[in-house]
Amino acid sequence: MAEQVMLPDPAMPDPPSFDGWTCPLPLRDHPTVVMGHGGGGQMSAELIEHLFVPAFSNPLLAGLTDSAVVTLGGAHLAFSTDSFVVQPLFFPGGSIGDLAVNGTVNDLAMSGAQPAYLSCGFILEEGVELSVVGRIAKDLGTAAELAGVIVATGDTKVVDTGHGDGVYINTAGIGLVRDGVDIRPQRAAAGDVVIISGMIGVHGIAIMSVREGISFGTEVVSDCAPLNGLVAAMLDTTPDLHVLRDPTRGGVATSLNEIAKAAGVGIELTERNLPIPETVANACSFLGLDPLYVANEGKLLAIVARDQADELLATMRAHPLGADAAVIGECVPDHPGMVVTKTAFGATRVVDTPIGEQLPRIC
């Protein structure tokens, strides 16, 4: 009996081939999407680098920053988009509505832009209570007003019961970049100082405490806030900021690793200088987490020339959202592309990029 040969269906697209890939194993090991692909770690980077970048390849996308700086009609504009799927929808210190505004506002601000306009898309699951949607919409509108931005356009879609998770939101935004401002990860240079604007890990622990019903002896409140006002004050003092980044998914560790790799420098942190609140430290110890990998939603990392660091730090501490700002490290010529921490015992440990994410669905 002749062997039956199965011919390809011309109507079906060819499956993607992994044969020529050189990425690490986690992506190859998962032919389907897993939660780690959305965690902001190595798996997210591989997904973007090997699937999305080739499909959309262009010079503006090549920087892979949180917002692209484009020139339109002679003006320099920052343009960004973000989607929000946090659970629970409401948490101490905010809601998915607050996150939808502040997340995009902060991405624009990290390019040195003053955010101006947002779009807003709601994806609603059939059966979600209208009172919940109304409360989220009100939070979103209030957050936009506080950030000084206008929700200029929007869209609403409804999906069948079981095909969503209550409410998802996408926001896109544009903002005006000051003349002469050039903020991007590639500008980090050996000798630069690394500054954090405040306490680390608060948002992720706030989400986890509510989601898992864990009490840490006191309520942990998210740091969700718009950072454009703080950035404007920083630029007034130090127009030549080298790098800004809001350490959201993957936390401080992931953001600094991305910067180190982009700039080809090493980054050394001093453990005793890391501003980690006691509640976060205790919660991370209990849960087996590292605060450096826990998400933030109202903090920024700034990298600046050493001779400008003291003045910048004073400006940040004079602003309500930078009152706890601290110098936490420096850029060095050694171990380029790598982040390390000097411990209290004088040892050095590598702070690598996580494969997935410690706490999924935090934004």
TrEMBL record:
- BP term (GO), one: protein maturation
Q: PurM-like N-terminal domain spans which residues? A: 66-177
Which part of the chain is the PurM-like C-terminal domain?
A: 190-335
Q: Which SUPFAM superfamilies match?
A: PurM C-terminal domain-like (SSF56042), PurM N-terminal domain-like (SSF55326)
Coiled-coil-forming residues are: none
The record's listing under InterPro entries reads:
HypE, PurM-like_C_dom, PurM-like_C_sf, PurM-like_N, PurM-like_N_sf
The family this protein is said to belong to: Belongs to the HypE family.
Q: What is this protein called?
A: Hydrogenase maturation carbamoyl dehydratase HypE
Which organism's genome codes for this protein?
Kribbella voronezhensis
